[in-house]
Design goal:
By secondary structure, this protein is of the alpha/beta class. Helix content is 31%, strand content 27%. The protein has one domain: 3-Layer(aba) Sandwich (Rossmann fold), CATH 3.40.50. It is globular, with a radius of gyration of 17 Å.
Length: 197
């Protein structure tokens, strides 16, 4: 079992957690042939698994990740949910969508319905390159919509892989409450960055 250090997340949702910090330390060790910085990064155990899934497309880590998330929800958080909803992927052209794969795994392990009721309705730039929180909020305003009303009155788990500033989760939370008419939102991410950028 993975050693986790859950971190409470504040936002517009009812309650939220990241299972652990993403990167414990990162040291600049030089530059590659293109002049890009190269770092020696030490990640938390769940951060390392997410890195392998997201950037190495290593599907072998999916079971370990979903088991850790489901165990946390069931045995530590002890929340009652009626559906698992992933944050729509920022890159729709990826052959492997980590957020969707993990959310499906969590829903299977918890024997809860999986729902893609939230959809991205406008294109936005990758937010990892936007450091100002207010600018992120502007870019996300009206970026998401509801595909259907299957979640009316339900308590749901809103899932994302990485928490940076919370701008995306907050934008989606507002849409789910206002247009989706959900009852209660619990936000869960696998990891959280060390800074708010």
């Amino acid at each position: 079992m993975i050693d986790l250090h859950p971190i409470k997340l504040s936002g517009d949702w009812h309650e939220g957690f990241a299972l652990d910090i993403h990167t414990i330390s990162s040291t600049l060790i030089g530059y590659d042939q293109y002049g890009h910085e190269v770092f020696d990064s030490q990640r938390s155990p769940i951060g390392e698994l997410l890195y392998r899934l997201k950037y190495r497309r290593d599907r072998t880590v999916l079971d370990e990740i979903t088991e850790a998330a489901a165990n946390f929800i069931t045995n530590e958080w002890k929340i009652r949910i009626e559906a698992v909803v992933p944050v729509p992927p920022s890159k729709s052209n990826r052959s492997l969508q980590p957020v969707i794969e993990v959310a499906k795994g969590i829903s299977t392990r918890l024997q809860m319905p999986y729902s893609e009721a939230i959809v991205k309705v406008t294109d936005t730039p990758e937010l990892k390159n936007v450091f100002d929180y207010k600018r992120r909020q502007e870019l996300l305003r009206e970026a998401f919509g509801i595909k259907n009303l299957e979640l009316i009155g339900k308590d749901i788990l809103l899932f994302d892989d990485l928490f940076r500033s919370g701008a995306t989760l907050n934008a989606i939370t507002r849409v789910l409450y206002d247009s989706g008419m959900v009852n209660r939102i619990y936000a869960l991410t696998l990891t959280k960055t060390r800074s708010k950028s």
